[in-house]
Design a protein that fits this description.
By secondary structure, the protein is an alpha+beta fold. Helix content is 52%, strand content 14%.
Length: 590
């Protein structure tokens, strides 16, 4: 026994010693010594206007360097892979602080096939991404230029890459790439690929080296501030409208129904002569139709609400705790995965407590199907994501794009869901059923045993009008922010204004609550007591307008082409709008 303990502590000591003592100076620690080897990584290559149509760098027939450096792939995490990164050592010889005037990479002679591939790449404006000490650089494969020899426009490929690297002490601060020496693309043309490196000192500090990638003029434009102010004024208006309805219309009625003695001299209830929402007080607390599905929607909505809030707060706290979100590849996706797994407990709790409130007694519990509600909550959103991912994977595999999710990553994701998210969701359901506050609250009045018939209502009180109309104002409060988010995601920009996002997220929640109250009031006033689905649909209809806006953005703000990119664009937008529907729907029902 003692030998095992000694062996265990020896292993721990060895691990700590290797971690602390043998620290390598590389792009993980961002510290280099003079003449220390610096790795230049090639990432992806693809059409400039199609962000998701990405391929491995060496899928184009570039010749590989013969410098004795192995062009191996860099190990990546789940988030980094899901973001579409596939780093591979370029094989270039770079040393910290050492200039390279002109170094040959390799030579190659174009044949008909390779010339055709390079011509197609230039036609589609292929560009590639490089990383040096985690700093991204971008360059074009080639360009269509005028050939003075033949007197016509011809496709050219850039054969020289000039690297300009700034450093401060023993840290790299900036890295810039310039593509030079265009050569016409013709079969039989001999190409010599070269590169040069120039190091220069700078006074910029290491902590601010990513600031040059942030487009302050775009994200902090006056219209961004104006949109937030406009949305805030909308919140004030809607809160006033809701207060008017509650104070002037409902206050007296609530006081009437609070009295126990509300009968006239003949023993007939006075409220029987009333009309509108007062007539459905015996049916308004009836369980919604398709209760299992509705509970799953509520639970999933609250899970995603907490998830988004957690990601935003984590991103805001980045400069103080873990660094800015945009500095590490894959950190955003990894954060979503972790938050989704942990927030599964919220989904189970919300769904279980909501379902339980319609079965307050032991006798009623005998007909409960809470297991189905729990299973539906656990599977609802993951099933939608899995289905869309499988379809997109089939398209990506057909095009041999790295946007396809590898099998190993899919297995890891399934394991995270199976061993983390699933148990937390089950635990949350049990806690919500037994100790959730919603499960202990009984309806303030008795529910009629026979459902009341719903009379015909005016057109403006029918759900077919109320539901889509209620989503206009919440969409109006966020559509400017949607433009900035879409542009950051689809146009290679670093999104960093998470304070704006938190503020808009709060405004969206408040506007959704206010508009849903008004929508439910109109429906109840028409004596329609199916208010739960109306509340869910009214709040969730915002997502429909966001999807319609994504159509507008696709046709008028992008230049995307091809089945691969179009599939990924609308697949991602569909998932985004589904998540938004769940979030707004849960807030509306609340």
């Amino acid at each position: 026994m003692k030998s095992r303990i000694l062996l265990f502590y020896s292993y721990i000591f060895t691990t700590i010693r290797n971690t602390v003592v043998y620290v390598k100076a590389d792009d993980y620690y961002h510290i280099y010594e003079k003449n220390e080897a610096v790795s230049l990584w090639v990432n992806t290559i693809g059409p400039y206007h199609n962000p998701q149509e990405a391929y491995p760098y060496y899928q184009l027939p570039f010749c590989k360097p013969s410098h004795g450096i192995e062009t191996s792939k860099k190990s990546s995490g789940i988030g980094e892979i899901l973001e579409g990164n596939q780093l591979q050592n370029s094989g270039f010889k770079l040393h910290f602080g050492t200039d390279v005037d002109r170094e040959s990479i390799c030579d190659m002679t174009l044949d008909k096939d390779t010339a055709k591939e390079f011509e197609s790449a230039v036609d589609n404006q292929y560009w590639y991404e490089l990383f040096l000490d985690d700093l991204p650089m971008w360059g074009m494969v080639g360009e269509t230029l005028r050939d003075d020899v033949h007197g016509r426009m011809e496709k050219h490929i850039f054969t020289h890459r000039s690297l300009s690297i700034s450093f401060n002490g023993n840290r790299i601060i900036e890295a810039n790439l310039t593509s030079e020496n265009p050569v016409p693309i013709d079969a039989g043309q001999k190409l010599e690929f070269t590169y040069s490196v120039h190091w220069k000192p700078t006074s910029k500090v290491f902590e601010n080296r990513f600031n040059r990638y942030l487009e302050y003029d775009f994200f902090e434009h006056k219209i961004h501030w104006f949109s937030v102010f406009n949305s805030f004024m909308m919140v004030i208006f809607l809160c006033g409208l809701v207060a008017l309805i509650l104070l002037r219309t409902l206050r007296n009625d609530f006081a009437r129904y609070a009295k126990d003695e509300d009968l006239d001299v003949e023993g007939i209830q006075v409220i029987g002569e009333d009309s509108g929402w007062k007539q459905v007080h015996g049916d308004v607390f009836r369980a919604p139709e398709h209760l299992v599905l509705f509970s799953a929607l509520v639970g999933t909505g609250w899970q995603l609400t907490v998830l988004v809030l957690g990601v935003i707060l984590y991103a805001i706290a980045g400069p103080l705790l873990h660094g800015n979100m945009y500095e590490d590849r894959g950190e955003m996706v990894s954060t979503f995965i972790v938050c989704f797994s942990l927030s599964s407990a919220v989904a189970g709790y919300s769904s279980g407590s909501f379902y339980k409130q319609f079965f307050p007694t032991v006798r009623a519990e005998a007909s409960s199907q809470w297991q189905k509600a729990m299973l539906a909550t656990i599977l609802l959103f993951p099933a939608i994501v899995a289905l869309v991912t499988i379809l997109l994977n089939l398209v990506a595999l057909h095009y041999e794009s790295i946007s396809a999710v590898p099998l190993g990553v899919a297995v890891k994701m399934a394991a995270i869901w199976l061993f983390v998210a699933l148990p937390l969701a089950v635990m949350g359901t049990l806690v919500g059923r037994n100790w959730g506050s919603a499960g202990k609250n009984e309806a303030p009045c008795r529910v009629n045993s026979i459902p009341r018939p719903i009379p015909a209502a005016p057109w403006y009180c029918q759900p077919v009008f109320v539901v889509p109309a209620a989503g206009i104002l919440p969409f109006g409060s966020i559509f400017i922010e949607m433009y900035f988010i879409f542009t950051a995601f689809w146009s290679y920009k670093f999104y960093y204004v998470y304070g704006f996002m938190l503020l808009v997220y709060t405004i969206l929640s408040m506007v959704t609550v206010c508009t849903t109250i008004v929508a439910v009031y109109f429906v109840l006033n028409a004596e329609n007591y199916h208010w739960q689905w109306v509340a869910m649909g009214s709040a969730g209809s915002t997502s429909v307008y966001v999807f319609l806006y994504s159509l507008f953005y696709f046709f008028y703000k992008t230049q995307m082409t091809g089945l691969l990119q179009i599939s990924f664009y609308f697949g991602y937008m569909f998932l985004f709008c589904c998540a938004l529907f769940f979030i707004c729907g849960a807030i509306g029902v609340w």
